[in-house]
Amino acid sequence: MANNERARVQAAKRFVESWAGRGYEKGDTHSFWLELLRDVVGMKNVTTAVRFEQSTSERGFIDVIIPDAKTMIEQKSLGVDLDKPESRQGSMVTPFQQVKRYADSLPNSQRPDTIIVSDFGRFRIHDLDQVKPAENYTEFTLAELPEQLHLLDFLTDPHRTRQGREEQVSLDAGQLVGKLYELLRQQYVDPDSPESRHALNVLCVRLVFCLFAEDAGLFPKNAFFNYLNDLPARQVRAALRDLFIHLRTKPEDLDPYESDELKAFPYVNGGLFEADEDIPGFSDEIVRVLLHDVSLGTNWSQISPTIFGGVFESTLNPETRRSGGMHYTSPKNIHRVIDPLFLNDLTTELEDIVALSGVTDRKRRNALEQYHNKIASLTFFDPACGSGNFLTETYISLRRLENKVLSELNHYQTSLVLDTEYSPLKVSLDQFYGIEINDFAVSVATTALWIAELQANAEAQIIVTQTIEDLPLTDSARIVTGNALTLDWSAVLPSGECSYLIGNPPFRGARYQTPEQKANLVAVFDGARNAGNIDFVAGWFMKAARYMGDSPIRAAFVATNSICQGEQVANVWSPIYDLGVRIDFAHDTFRWHNESNDAAAVYVVIVGFSKQGGVKRLFHHPTVNDEAVVEAPAQLNAYLKDAPDVFVWSRSEPLSDVPRIGIGNKPIDGGYYLFTPAEKEAFLDVEPGAAQFFHRWYGSQEFIKGIERWVLWVGGATPSELSELPEVIKRIHAVRDLRASSRSAPTRKIAATPTRFHVENIPLGQSVLIPEVSSERRKYIPLGHLLPGDLASNLVRLVPNATLYHFGILHSRAHNAWMRTVAGRLKSDYRYSGGIVYNTFVWPSSSDSQQSHIADRAQDVLNARDLYPDSTIAQMYDPDLDFMFPALTSAHAALDDAVERAYGLEVGLEEKDVVAHLFELYGRAIGAL
pTM higher than 0.85, yes or no? Predict the structure, then answer.
């Protein structure tokens, strides 16, 4: 049993002991369910996630509501017969029937999926999706709770909560709209013209809004369906045109002779239906898909605007549709950005107010009202907003906090407000701003935010028992179409009025940027050093830093991990730090699943930054797929390490007095000089005199996987020696001809010297081989120790004429820790660089005896490898197999101890402390500290 599950069971046992034999409906319900949900079930933020004593339109109360789990709870006193009918509003109903009657009176968006009935000693769970839920329920007793805990997991399991259901509904809806889109596209005269694409996109956005409005109760029940259902397909085009005109026309301007069918629809406003756009003809199939598959096949009131906006935009946007997958950013990943940036603090602040003791009701109410005004004054700006998912999820989160405030202000009692001009709601779409380069995505984002507002209004109405006027749409987010790297952000939202910058700007590596994109990026960085060699996403970080000015703005963006690793760190962050910006929190590298049906994933970081400072937080992912472990570093530098703020710039020579590093040999031979063991033997059978010119050949794969390969190198052979080797001469001619026919001028040039490699690195002594790319799973990059005569390929880094001491330092935990911090990545694998890793590494000032001791320990590592002649280097350094190689593990531990003592470090320090020490040494070596 996992530790977490064991703790839950123990908590359940304590809960059972505490509540056995007691329970009074009026006095104990609140504490019973708070303790159960918080201490046993493990619900987070329980005081803001649960509502008690919610009044109903049936002049009664629901004892407990858990909105996110779509669950209502009817609590009875201990010993009450749960099957016995009671008199309620003139009829006899059981406790379940009492709650079910109220649930059935709600609009679809507010109905529960589950009803729990309890008498403190028993729990009955009724799944309303089941046939006859009154009879088909799951029951267990309080005493059985520790063994039956899993039956309550649906209260916190995202696959069973509202988010999980909304996700599936949204994905299904996206699939259906994609089908409708393709059918409509074929109806246009020129379906691929920009005008047709724009008109089709607008049409689909409008249809989606109508479908949502119908299911959410904003339109009369089945109004949209009935309006089109009886029409011949040829009349649907005109009917939609008339409907869209009606939805944008103020009531006082309506044609008094308009049809009753149109008069049933309200005035929408908001600009969604403002422009006249081309609508194609409808076929019978399109009408069927629209009305029966898309409309009746989906409960549109249950879609998640956060998810559906992304699915909708990626499905219909021709620029992204070509990728073949629907993409959306999951709410989980969005919350990795917004929670540490502001939402956790806001939630904690509200919980502290709710938990105030020893104060008067007036003081508590004043604190709640001040908090309400605070969250209504915050502004949120996404300068790469796409379909608006970050803005939408932020808006939803704020509205949920607002609902909790309203509940508390009314002591969990609903309030009846007679003044129809007054609205208790203060959080509005006017607080949200965005920039997006694609005009269709702008339309989707605006519509998704409207849908989020309308859904939130439906939830708020339960609390305030007041009709909230949904239509006409009176507010909207300000989302501007434009290039965020050239647009003045202050023209969208003055920096002095901005609270938070959020988002997921576009990723595009330096080699994949268009000339225009690269020019925009260089301009944003104002020609800073190496600005042409950074990821496109960095432009948003620099724009944000400039936009902040003297304003107390805090920002957090998702970015490729390249901006916090390797050579890019200094290029990106040095000019940003010059503006006074520092990193406040970060998620180090993890896989950002874009939740698409083609399983797209990239390796990202999340970086929160500002000029304000504060408590540092690092969400560390031990591996790229792991959930984060939260750390509180004393400082957080641009490499996301608790280490000094210094930047590691690429160097052409080592900082320390050590051999220079290079690449191996680059033959450019078409494979004529490379041999497998069998090919080598066959060649020598024909030409045995060539044996002296064969050398063992090591590239990354040959070394790590134990693949035996050989190379024929005759660059040092004399003409007389070659004249005795006709088969070798054939190979030389083949290489010469290959090079001479190349399209590359430098390759054609070296056709004149076919016996030589394009790049040669042939040491006279021993060498250290470093694979250029190595898995991030390994504790150490496995190094090779090459003997004289062994040759390495250009796919490795080579330190020629190196001693065992050099091998030992480079194979130590200290050097690997430095590499892990400053090296670039290929996806998530380490990419070793001479300029940024080897040349910047500060070696210890070790004595002769320390160097000798380190060399001995290095030899022990090589000896330990020899103990396993049937195993490959890949197997020996696989972290899942290290138990099979105890001698090697022990040898490396001894080597690490020796090296760290040479640095003057205590043995056994955590790796992060070793990294901090190395940054200190580097900062001093370059004069930065």
Answer: no
